[in-house]
Specification:
Length: about 110
Amino acid sequence: MLTCAVLSADPQGKKQREDPNTRSVQGFVEDASGRLVEGAVVQLKNKKSLQVRSFITQKEGAYYFHGLSTDVDYELRAEHKGRASGVRTLSVFDSRRKAVINLKLEDKN
């Protein structure tokens, strides 16, 4: 007796497993002249719980936060060697599943 099993891959399986109540935000940190900044600390503040998560950028100046709630506003800010970016907000009204918010460090005056 010969038994044959066929396994089919669901090309949309990944999309079905994604939680519809979560999102992510990513971007780059650059200095005032537009160069990508390694070692910048990016802070993500949950405006509901006030919890703060941090990410330290690598050579390419990139940061990434995932598993964020769609019903919470978040504030993003970067710091590096005494310079800081302005505060940027990821709002509940932003419907992007993968938001991109780049941060620019400002020189002190």
